Amino acid sequence: MSRAPFEFTKSTYSSGNGECVEVARNIPGTIAVRDSKDVDGAIGPGR
User: Is the pTM of this model over 0.70?
Assistant: First the structure.
């Protein structure tokens, strides 16, 4: 997956102890998920 078009924000399901996920929903029909501690790591498909 290309990183350029995704606009990530912290998920409301993230905890306050540093275990956070970020989601991008700015592309129609697509939800991308990533670990906020590893922003250059893998981007996975959401549901």
Answer: no
